[in-house]
Amino acid sequence: METLKREEFALADPVRLEALAQGLVFCLGDPDPTLRDGIAYEALSAWMRKGALPAPALRRLSDLLYFRLDGPEGEGYVHPFAALLLAEVARTDRVAAWMSAQERATMVARAVRYETSVRDYRGYDARNGWRHGVAHGADWLMQLSLNPALDDAQLAAIVDAVAAQAVPESGHAYVFGEPERLAAPVLYAARRGFRDEAQWTAWFAGLPARLGDAKLAYRDPAWLARRHDLLAFLQAIYVSADVSDDARLRVLLPGATAALKAMR
Fold first, then answer.
1. Least trusted range by pLDDT, from 4-13, 26-35, 120-129, 215-224
2. Which residues pair with 129 in a beta bridge?
3. Rounded mean pLDDT, 245-257
4. Residue 50: pLDDT above 90?
5. Which of 99, 145, 177, 249 could form an S-S bond across to 103 if both were Cys, CB 3.0 to 4.6 Å?
6. Does this model's pTM top 0.90?
């Protein structure tokens, strides 16, 4: 496998390539980051980005990744990396559509369900590498939000899934860049012209309530962690919209600004 990596995962035989791709899916839960991230993920991502897997192979790969996503969490690696590779599958359909409308709807539903269900908030471990479930789920949602085939109801489900993790109820404080990754699907949905200023302002207005009991303000570690997360998320949205000349992004500014003021 190291030789294959040095050769940038070049493999001419499509039958052998698909067989190897399916086998590598079972390496996603391996605690060794060199195998899990450096070979299994990188190889599968490279093949998808090169267009080396035709639609039937991508369908089979998707089913296998869903299977891993539904299976045991193990040491916490397999679900985040299955989600990250499903983001790559979603990208292939965005670049050159091959999914049916039903397959795409199933993927949206699966991505939303995954992101809202994440409760393992571990990020980077110096010995064992990344878990990063929330960020990987956000990447999956981002690739879907970029797909012009999605309708407004599907985009609404995506941004609501983002809201659920922008302020984790558990009071986990993000320190591995999660707020920026969560902001991306919202920004790309807005860039498509999804929702007007009033609708976005109403959506942002619901976020401060996720901080919890106002009586605990500045007196409870979990409340403070939620405030930290929401502040980082809103600032990521605000900065991206503020520096943009795209009028479709700038409609986010009033709502993000009002939500930031509501947190004072």
1. 4-13
2. 125
3. 98
4. yes
5. 99
6. yes
Question: 17-27 burial, b if ≥16 CB within 10 A, otherwise e?
Answer: bbebbeebbeb
Burial class of residue 67, CB neighbours in 10 A (0-12, 13-18, 19+)? exposed
Alpha carbon distances (Å) from 75 to 67, 68, 79, 171? 17, 13, 10, 22
Per DSSP, the residues of 133-201 read HHHHHHHHHHHHHT-TT--HHHHHHHHHHHHHHHS-TT-PPP-SSHHHHHHHHHHHHHHTT-S-HHHHH
What number of CA atoms fall less than 13 Å from residue 219's CA on the CB side? Answer: 5
CA distances from 100 to 63, 103, 105, 140, 163 (A): 14, 5, 9, 18, 28
- What's the pLDDT at 2? 66
- Structural tokens at position 88: 């790559």
Q: Which residue has the tokens 């192979």?
A: 57
For 125, the enclosing helix (H) or strand (E) is strand 124-125
Cα separation, 167 vs 19, in Å, equals 40
- Tokens 């498509």 belong to which residue? 192
% of residues, the chain, pLDDT over 90: 94
Three-class SS of residue 235? Answer: helix
